Amino acid sequence: MQPFRIEIPQADLDDLRRRIADTRWPDELPGVGWDRGVPCGYLKELAEYWQTEYDWRAAEARLNRYPQFVTEIDGADVHFLHVRSPEPDATPLLLTHGWPGSVAEFLDVIGPLSDPRAHGGDPADAFHLVIPSIPGYGFSTPLRETGWNVPRIAKAWAELMRSLGYDRYVAQGGDAGSVISLELGRVDPEHVAGVHVNMLMTFPSGDPAEFADLSESDQERLGKLSRFDADLSGYMKIQATRPQTLAYGLTDSPVGQLAWIVEKFREWTDSAKVPEDAVGRDQLLTIVTIYWLTATAGPSAQFYYEGAEGVRLAASGVQPPPVTVPVGVAVFPHDIFVPLRRFADRDLPNITHWTEFDRGGHFAAMEQPALLTDDIRSFARSLA
Description:
The chain has about 375 residues and is of the alpha/beta class. It has helices at about 10-20, 40-50, 55-65, 105-115, 150-165, 175-185, 215-230, 235-240, 245-250, 255-265, 280-295, 295-315, 340-345, 365, 370-380; strands at about 1-5, 70-75, 75-85, 90-95, 125-130, 170-175, 190-195, 325-330, 350-355.
């Protein structure tokens, strides 16, 4: 387990700016807005800001405020933040990001979660934080072999927590982090006190009785699931089938990488017109810049290839083994998946905590950090 510090060579930043300046821009049909993808006018303005005003060194310094390490687990180099609380009796909490995210998405919750006393909270709610980068994402690279699917990552996380000396801990995540955290509850129930997620995929089982007496709200949620499959899931299908082909374009063009990610921050968040309505421009660009500087468009997409069979089985109603530890669910209304409680209880009978919010979307730690922090605290209290 080696200390780690992010130190991007200046030549890499100069190369990024040069590549943005040299972008070969496509034509665009008039009047289509966001319907066919990211509008050229919007992306040109954002790319110019990225090239001329965005300050990676400030983001790098903010990340380097927290202790970071790299350790080898099951043949992979795993990068993680390890933020010990000043409260000695704090509860260990493992936070897992998703795609297109990184450890940087948790920057606004690290302080309140690890040191509530300094943020106007109750010191009894403090957590020791472990925030790893999924293998193939960010600084957990390079990938050396295939097979890094959800069960393998969950087992790696269990080993990480064991090696840090945490005998009992809570797991939390959204997007891929939700799936990984739930699997961690399956593979390490002796040490996982509970699992909290801020995204939950729920699918119909095929039983017509499940559709009886659905509320209007639940019907809308089913409609959202259908829209995702028909209109919003193209990224997932290409990453789950041809991640290597995709990687060439995104690894060579920073504006291509920017467009690939910024579209998701528009479609999956509580944004009115542009992604910045939900997530600050610099926050968004920090996420994108990490993907660019680490050249992880391709390796991160491999996660979808490895998990394609699991998604297919879930969508067809085949359920994995039950999660026996308590589960907490935070539901944000503008997420890509908004779960139906009746389907959730069918799949996860150990749900002990369920909160529905009136705002927020997929990137809860960045969009609504205070709401997410409070909900994690509330769930952890229920485990005592």
